[in-house]
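Figure 6 in text form: structure in, sequence out.
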């Protein structure tokens, strides 16, 4: 029987713990770990500003009493006493202004420190898994978005710290003013504090509901961001204007905004009765306070000093729910703190994730021969139920060239992701010299592979950095870069650049230029070859000539064997006529290997490869003949 009261106590403690865990203050205080000195100085400033405001109310009350006594000549203070009152007020004002100035300097610095730290944590969490499957998960993408900004106004950690200074300052000042009223009538101070706190609480509940509704519509928010980018980015802006899509983009943006806000407006309408009740409680509490004060003045049971302090304090308690500043900052504070909660949740979900499930054996990597084998590999994307690859088995022998051909959408690029450890097989295994890829150190394994992805990145930096990005920890001399450029036919492009290797490859930077699609493709090839020169033993080329013309493509494949001699090479293409020089060819169709062998063997087989090779070869011959005929007509 005596144990029963403990259960409600535990529930209360658990409830309080949950409230603290969801409190925006708890997460915003995480800024202490990012910039402890700045945050401590900021808290001291907030407390000092609130304390000086309360002190000024008391000092002004004392001064008013002394001035009235001087006018009535009854127990009038000495001029020295009045000067002392004025000096105290002046010192408090100076202290308050100086502290406010320091706070204005410290607040943005602490906010930037927190914003930068949180964004770095989110990036680290998103990049922690060695694979990229999680970045195809819509639910996780929503968490990723809410861990940086929340809501249509894009509030984040920076806004949370700035709003916290106002919110925390108002709390301290409101409590201080209620304490001064309690010095006059203790019960009146409690009534005013309860009324204004209830009003603040109702407004916070309303704000929290609005936040939950808007934050729950992360997909709509991402669609809005996408539509904004369509109007603001150069590549998208071209088609938007040419195709007359401006009205559609703006209309779609407004439609998403309206659909997101309708739910919030509906919730606010349902909440109006509580807001009305809170306003009524504040009106009643203030009317009671002024009536009590007027009654005491009439009966002369209150001194001038008490009256002057009480009247200021009664008005000052309203800062607890000031709609012009505090209420707006409450919304910003809640929004910004929401991102901090999202960041912590994302770190918990992804921070400790690792690809391997067994013992790491990174010591095998430096001496691995390069034999890679896929054994009955099946794969499907997390958000889909259809297998992109089904029972794929193939071997890449060390020092040999292998080609993988197939129509677009047959699963070729997916196989590259699996090979790089960017995705995990649903079933089957990938072996490196007989060791499961999942048992190898992911970073060390990728350091041994040079990859040119079909959708390779065009880094908005110098040509030098674009090449050395593949091995950014290595020093690249001018001779190293020139040698790599010569191997892939990039030397003429570099020679034409205004600043050579130091030319920014974006017109958005001073002195920058852009490259053609084929020139970018050669630059990506140079990046891969730079990695090879730095020790990579496996080269994967995913559609390496997609942006090259027919002549440049033929030149590339003519030199392909010389370019990749001694490497374990996987060449991926949908052009059957381009891979005939590979020592072994696999034909991929609908996620399955349907044919394999050398070019001669496959042509003798007379299957899919032979048929498509003949079709594409004839098509290339016709296009080349047409181009020659066009040049001849133009010359005539």
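Output sequence:
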């Amino acid at each position: 029987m005596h144990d029963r009261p403990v259960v409600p106590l535990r529930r209360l403690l658990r409830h309080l713990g949950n409230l603290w865990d969801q409190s925006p203050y708890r997460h915003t205080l995480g800024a202490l770990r990012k910039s402890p000195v700045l945050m401590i100085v900021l808290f001291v400033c907030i407390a000092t500003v609130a304390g000086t405001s309360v002190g000024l109310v008391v000092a002004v009350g004392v001064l008013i009493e002394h001035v009235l006594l001087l006018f009535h000549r009854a127990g009038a203070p000495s001029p020295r006493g009045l000067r002392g009152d004025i000096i105290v007020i002046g010192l408090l004002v100076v202290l308050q202004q100086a502290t406010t100035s320091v706070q204005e300097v410290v607040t943005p610095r602490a906010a930037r420190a927190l914003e930068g730290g949180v964004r770095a944590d989110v990036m680290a969490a998103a990049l922690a898994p060695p694979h990229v499957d999680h970045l195809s998960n819509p639910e996780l993408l929503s968490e990723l978005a809410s861990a940086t900004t929340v809501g249509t106004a894009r509030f984040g950690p920076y806004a949370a710290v700035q709003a916290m200074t106002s919110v925390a300052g108002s709390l301290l000042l409101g409590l201080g003013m209620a304490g001064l009223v309690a010095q006059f009538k203790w019960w009146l101070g409690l009534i005013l504090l309860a009324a204004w706190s209830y009003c603040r609480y109702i407004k916070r509940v309303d704000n929290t509901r609005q936040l939950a509704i808007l934050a729950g519509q992360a997909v709509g928010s991402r669609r809005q961001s996408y539509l904004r980018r369509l109007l603001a980015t150069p590549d998208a802006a071209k088609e938007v204007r040419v195709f007359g899509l401006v009205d559609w983009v703006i209309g779609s943006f407004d439609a998403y905004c309206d659909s997101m806000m309708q739910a919030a407006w509906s919730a606010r309408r349902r909440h109006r009765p509580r807001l009305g009740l809170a306003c009524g409680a504040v009106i009643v509490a203030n009317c009671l306070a002024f009536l009590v004060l007027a009654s005491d003045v009439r009966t002369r049971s209150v001194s001038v000093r008490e009256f002057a302090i009480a009247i200021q304090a009664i008005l000052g308690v309203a800062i607890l729910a000031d709609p012009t500043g505090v209420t707006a900052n409450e919304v910003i504070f809640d929004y910004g703190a929401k991102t901090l909660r999202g960041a912590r949740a994302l770190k918990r979900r992804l921070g400790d994730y690792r690809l391997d499930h067994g013992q790491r054996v990174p010591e095998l990597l430096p001496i691995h021969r390069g034999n890679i084998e896929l054994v009955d590999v099946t794969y499907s994307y997390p958000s889909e139920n259809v297998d992109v690859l089904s029972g794929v088995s193939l071997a890449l022998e060390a020092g040999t060239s292998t080609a993988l051909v197939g129509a677009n959408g047959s699963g070729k690029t997916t196989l590259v992701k699996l090979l790089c450890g960017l995705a995990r097989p649903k079933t089957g295994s990938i072996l490196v010299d007989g060791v499961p890829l999942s048992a190898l150190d992911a970073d060390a394994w990728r350091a041994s592979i040079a990859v040119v992805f079909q959708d390779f990145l065009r880094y908005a930096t110098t040509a030098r950095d674009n090449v050395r990005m593949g091995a950014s920890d290595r020093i690249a001399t001018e001779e190293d870069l020139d040698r790599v450029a010569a191997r892939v036919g990039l030397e003429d492009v570099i020679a034409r650049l205004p600043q050579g290797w130091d030319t920014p490859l974006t017109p958005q930077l001073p002195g920058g230029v852009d490259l053609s699609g084929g020139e970018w493709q050669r630059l990506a090839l140079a990046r891969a070859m730079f990695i090879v020169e730095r020790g990579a033993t496996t080269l994967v080329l995913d559609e390496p000539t997609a942006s090259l013309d027919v002549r440049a493509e033929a030149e590339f494949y003519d030199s392909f064997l010389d370019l990749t001699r001694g490497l374990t090479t996987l060449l991926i293409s949908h052009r059957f006529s381009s891979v005939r020089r590979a020592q072994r060819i696999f034909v991929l169709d609908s996620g399955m290997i349907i044919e394999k062998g050398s070019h001669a063997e496959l042509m003798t087989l007379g299957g899919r490869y032979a048929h498509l090779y003949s079709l594409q070869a004839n098509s290339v011959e016709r296009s080349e003949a047409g181009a020659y005929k066009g040049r001849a007509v133009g010359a005539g």
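Caption detail: Residues 1-7, 352-367, 624-636 have pLDDT under 50 and may be disordered.
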